[in-house]
Each structure stands twice: as C-alpha cells, then as structure tokens.
Amino acid sequence: AVAADGMEDLLAGDMRAMVLHDAPQDVPDVSFTDVDGVELTLTAFEGRFVVLNFWATWCAPCREEMPSLNALQQQLGGEGFAVVTIASGRNPIPAINRFFEEEGITDLPVYLDPRQTMSRQMGVLGLPITVLLNPEGQEIGRLRGDADWAGDDAIALLTALIGSSDS
Fold first, then answer.
1. pLDDT band at residue 4, thresholds of 50, 70 and 90?
2. Which residues contact 99 (CB under 8 A, 6 or more apart)?
3. Average pLDDT across the chain, whole number
4. Cα(11)–Cα(101) distance, integer angstroms
5. 51 — phi, psi (to 5°)?
6. Which of 32, 63, 98, 127 could form a Cys-Cys staple with 59, CB 3.0–4.6 A?
7. Distant-in-sequence, close-in-space partners of 132: CB < 8 Å, separation ≥ 6
8. What is the pLDDT, as a whole number, of residue 2?
9. 27, 137 Cβ separation under 8 angstroms
C-alpha cells in the first residue's frame, strides 16, 4: 500500500492546502451516476491514482480551477492516473455541458451526485473539495478550495506519488 509518507516536502504553492493523511483511509462504498444515469462506484478507478474533485456549476472557484484539472488529466491521465470530476447537488446536464464548453473542458468526465449522498458520506463540506485516492481506492489526502492542478507544484506532488507506487 502506498502512503503519502515523506511527501510533505512537496507541498508548495497551492498544494500547501493539501492535507496528507498519516495512513490511507477507507472510502465509503457509495455510488454516483454518469450522464445516462448508470451507477458507478470508485472501484471503477482502482489501480490508478485518482484526483477526485467535487464541484458544481454555480461554484465560482470550481470554474476557476476546472481548466487546470482538465490540463492535469491531459498531462498525466492514463493507466496509472485519472482526474474524476463529480458534480455535487443539483447540476442539470445542459448547465454542465455549457460550463464545460465555456471553460474549454474536453478531457474530464461528467459524473453526478445529485442528492449529495456521496459528498455527504465523504465529508465534503463546501466546494470545491479534491480528494486524492491511491490505487487501492483509499483516501491519502484532501484539499479544500480551489488550486492550480496543472501548476508545477501539483505536477511535482502527483508525479512523486505516482512514481512511489512503482517501487
């Protein structure tokens, strides 16, 4: 299992707001849906590091950070890493599509948590909140508020985490 041990030195810039846990924490087995209403759980992403972002169309800081999450997915996304964005609360699909179009979001999934069941169970208070998951699907860190996810500080931290799992 991968812990975020020794990664504290990498918490610079916007990543200073990241709280890395001493030990990985299990995540509630709660479902969310895709645009077609198909239910999924986070087990769909096991085997990869996940930057799990809770956001909403009406949340101004979410709008600020979404392009950097998109850029992060373009840069690091693949077999070992994924950015997973979940719209928390009432976010009509047309509003999400418009938001993604206006902000040039091309590489992020549209997942929904309309009743905020998942958000509540994961202790998401206020938006945006971003949770880091290890390949075992456990929470290893979380950041409240928005951040530049495509900035050097974020890339350095995430690359180190991804690299640490190869050993």
1. low
2. 57, 63, 66, 105
3. 92
4. 32
5. -100, 105
6. 127
7. 4, 18, 20, 49, 50, 51, 52, 139, 140, 141, 142, 143, 161
8. 47
9. yes
Amino acid making up residue 163 = G
Neighbours of 75 (CB within 10 A): 17
CA torsion through residues 34, 60, 13, 88, sign: negative
141 is written with which tokens?
A: 């860190």
Helix and strand numbers, DSSP H then E, in the chain: 4, 8
The model's pTM: 0.93
Helix 60-76 crosses helix 152-164 at what angle (to 10 degrees)? 50
Question: Rg of the Cα trace of the chain?
Answer: 15
* pLDDT mean over 77-97: 96
pLDDT digits (tens, 9 = 90+) for 113-145: 999 999 999 999 899 999 999 999 999 999 999
